[in-house]
Amino acid sequence: MSRIIYTGAPGNPRWSTNQPIFMGAQYQAGPVAVRQITNFGASAVAAILGPDLIMPGQQGNNVPTAGGAPWDQLLAGGPPLTFTQDNVNTWIRGHMINGRWGGPGNTWQNLVPLTTGANANHATVEAYMDAYLAASYAYETSGPRDAWFGLYYCVQSSVNPFSDATTTNNQNLYSYAPEFIRVLWRAVRILKPVNVSTATAAANIGAYPMNAVAAFPAGFVVPPLPYAMNGTATLPPGNAAGGAVLGAVPGNFPAAQGNGFDGGIEVHQS
Question: Is the pLDDT of residue 37 over 50?
Answer without folding.
Answer: yes
